[in-house]
Amino acid sequence: MEITKELLLSAYMQGIFPMAESADAEDVFWVDPDERGIFPLDKFHVPKKLARKIRSEPFDVRINTAFRDVMLKCAEPTKNIERQNTWINDLILERYVELHELGYAHSVECWQDDKLVGGLYGVSLNGAFCGESMFHDVTDASKIALVYLVARLKVGGYELLDTQFVTDHLSQFGAIEIPRAEYHEKLKQALELDQADFYSLSEDADGSTILQSVTQTS
User: Fold this and answer.
1) Other C-beta atoms within 10 Å of 170: how many?
2) Pairing state of beta strands 160-164 and 35-39?
3) pTM strictly above 0.70
């Protein structure tokens, strides 16, 4: 079966996403987990230490300036046991870049001295944002990108942030697992929101503004 951008969007609207066995794989398989990871946006948690770092603004946080580069960095294997091998192959790379060019996929990027040092990307459909992957080359860069994303989603009126799976890294921010049927219902409700706006939050928002937008800190 040919994987087109139209098929990819249709799959996301049904709660299904693709993965590849490895970077060298020529095709993908489709995933609809029994237990789905999400962030309840009203309960997102920012640890105190990270909040202090966000207020100090160690990174220049940008939106959609290096989408392909973020994907390529996310595809690199890491020493982290949770991602020693990539599930992003050339087919996935090209199709998501197409979604980005059409306005359906976005990246949140952390830059330091004009070097991309962390970030994440995902697919946006009405009031749902489906997070795909994140990376960091500098401590806390991916975490800060996540906080900036949540602030953007809350200000923009989103209802659902899908994380696919829950890791220890994500659970510290409040990620939880819910049954597939419950996820599909939440997705259906989020897709009915046609007023959600990824760009409602100013790209010039400072760290304090970001934290105020997220609101839940401890």
Assistant:
1) 21
2) antiparallel
3) yes
Residues 98/71, Cβ–Cβ less than 8 Å: no
Question: 8: alpha, beta or left, given left = phi > 0 and alpha = psi -120 to 50?
Answer: alpha
As a whole number of angstroms, the distance between CA 173 and CA 77 comes to 23
Helix (H) or strand (E) holding 210: helix 207-214
The domains of the chain, with CATH numbers, are: 33-72+105-214 (3.40.630.70)
DSSP 82: G
Q: Are 149 and 119 in contact (CB under 8 A)?
A: no
pLDDT, tens digit, 9 for 90 and up, residues 135-177: 999 999 999 999 999 999 999 999 999 999 999 889 999 999 9
Backbone torsion region of residue 42, taken as left when φ is above 0, otherwise alpha when ψ lies between -120 and 50, otherwise beta: alpha
Compute φ and ψ for 4, nearest 5 degrees. -105, 165
Structural contact between residues 86 and 77, judged by C-beta atoms closer than 8 angstroms: yes
Q: Maximum distance among all alpha carbons in the chain?
A: 49
H helices of 39-167, in order, are 48-56, 67-75, 90-101, 141-155
Supply the DSSP symbol for 133.
E
Whether 34 and 179 have beta carbons less than 8 Å apart is answered as yes
